[in-house]
Design goal:
Layout (H helix, E strand, L loop, with lengths): L1 E6 L3 H13 L3 E6 L14 E4 L9 H4 L4 E5 L3 H8 L6 E5 L3 H4 L10 H8 L2 H6 L2 H11 L16 E3 L6 H8 L4 E2 L20 E4 L9 H7 L7 E4 L7 H16 L3 E4 L5 H8 L2 E6 L7 H9 L3 E4 L4 H8 L5 E2 H4 L9 H15 L1 H17 L3
Parallel strand pairs: 1-2, 1-4, 2-3, 4-5, 5-6, 6-7, 8-9, 8-11, 9-10, 11-12, 12-13
Helix pairs in contact: 1-16, 12-15, 15-16
Amino acid sequence: MIVHLFEDQKFVDVTIENFDNVSFGLNKYIVFSNSKELRYVIRKDQVTVLPNSSYKLELDLIYKNCKLLIIHFLSPIKIYVLKNKPQNIKVIWSVWGSDAYSHFSNQKFFEPLTKNITRKNLLQIVKFSYIYEYYHFVRYKVKPLIKELKILQSIDYVFTVLPNEFKIIKKEFNLNATYVDYNYGINKFNDFNNVTLGNSILVGNSATSSNNHLDVFEIIKDTNHSLIVPLSYGAYDYKKYKELIIFEGKRIFKKLFIPIEEFMPLKDYRELTSSCNSVIMYHIRQQALGNIFMFLFQGMRVFLNSKSLTYYYLKDKGMIVFDLKKDYKLLGIELSEEYKMINKNIVLSLRSRDVIIAKTKRVISLYRSFID
């Protein structure tokens, strides 16, 4: 059996769809949550909900009949599970982004204005202290990941969102793992085909400092387009960051600044983003790639940070994407139909339903290779 470990996240449903389509009955999906009322998971009847606490968790409920463990985002409860893994079970770590990058020894993910506020962030200051290490151990029965690197040696395979991330993550954590090409995929492109775009600008994907919102605001401060800024979720301390971004956004852009503070169903969110013809994703680290692919498919003009792996990956694939610092004067100008079609076709070549099914089948073949 393949056991998948999640929290209550939006990627649970698409993972169930992907794997059950090619290996029905072979998978068990576990969601760690202290609430039986799941917020993001729709396929509730197909998941087993276990307590998000190492003190209440029965490991046998995870490891019974398990031959392959897939960790979707390496959270503290999953580090605890990994630390207590039987030797005969293979492990895949599906890296989402922050589960790796938040533990890098050198945090080069922030532009100057954002870096200045992260230095003053109390959580960031405490995070690397002995106090935090002690608190973390008492709460989760494991130390922070950076202090538990030996545990990562028991990981056999790694999925990364971008292929060019793997070498960086492997080197940072001294992994012995092998790269496996797998992506969750969006699989719903046709639901948003041939949409009519507005002339607003979408900025970022969340209330996390890796979006570098303040630095974006400085670059585009003279715009006369409406800015739609999703701020409905983020890291543990995201509410203070959200308040700061809303304050600065309204101060600089006045009524043009439109923060999105509440979670929206995907269909409503896509309709809202269709009022934009330009998107700014100014992360340095890999983030929001699923959204970026959807926006490219919809024909939006996508502006990225030229320091990011995402920028170089998409350019290498032939995508028409833009460097915000260099090309910001193009904000609000809709892409030509020719460029839209180029991006759309490349997205389908990388993330279409058929592509994701083929990748999922390869994961199942890998599983069968070491149980037969």
